[in-house]
Amino acid sequence: MKTTIRKAKVEDAPKLAELMNLAGEGIPAYLWERMADPGEEVMAFGIRRVAGTESGFSYTNAHVAECDGVIAGMLLGYRIPDPYEIGPLDEIPAVVRPLVEMEALVPGSWYVNAVATDSAHRGQGVGRILMEEAERLAAEARAATLSLIVAEQNAAALQLYEKLGYQIQARRPIVQFPRCPHTGDWILMIKETVPSS
């Protein structure tokens, strides 16, 4: 089955929101619940947010992997600003503070914010193809490094990233939230890019 990569489109927002929440270990839905209008369903707000162009979670920062015209996976990534301005930490939701702190350690890197494979397409190499696309995009953006953050208990993802040459750079404790699937630490990993010619 041939897998192709393309830039995400606004009409992909429903699938992107689902996959972003999966990749984000439930943190996106936890935050969307607090940001949604009264009575608005969490995923409806998430879709609205992804369909916009203002946040890092916008479809404009995403690429999708398609198998036979069906979205099999998603990559959300972009270059982290350099310098990276955090702003007051007490204004950042506690659950994402450790993530923001680690993002600030890798200014100018090409950040793999989220990568996820649909359950129907797991074990078919979709994640690896998306990570190769991240490397291509990082080189195109002339970023010297790629960066990502993963939960230490997500053993399968951690193993894949190590196989792909990512190395542990820093760690911060996970701040628990309702339905949080992990304890332990978030791990920041980086990989040097091969510049495009």
Defining traits:
197 residues; alpha+beta; Aminopeptidase; seven-stranded mixed β-sheet; 7 strands; 26% strand; acyltransferase; Bact_Acetyltransf; Acyl_CoA_acyltransferase; GNAT family N-acetyltransferase; GNAT_dom
In the predicted model, the low-confidence regions spanning at least 5 consecutive residues are none
- What is the CATH architecture assignment? 3-Layer(aba) Sandwich
- How far is it from the N-terminal to the C-terminal residue, by CA? 31 Å
Question: How big is the Rg?
Answer: 16 Å
Helical stretch tally: 6
Structural commentary:
The protein has helices at residues 13-23, 27-35, 42-51, 97-103, 126-140, 155-163; strands at residues 3-7, 62-67, 70-79, 110-117, 145-151, 167-173, 185-192. The chain is α+β, with helices and mostly antiparallel strands. The chain has one domain (3-192): Gcn5-related N-acetyltransferase (GNAT) (Aminopeptidase, 3-Layer(aba) Sandwich). Strands 1-2-3-4-5-7-6 form a 7-stranded mixed sheet, sandwiched between helices. Helix 5 (126-140) links the parallel strand 4 (110-117) and strand 5 (145-151). The two termini are 31 Å apart. InterPro entries: Acyl_CoA_acyltransferase, Bact_Acetyltransf, GNAT_dom. Keywords: Acyltransferase, Transferase. Residues 3-194 form the N-acetyltransferase domain. This is GNAT family N-acetyltransferase.
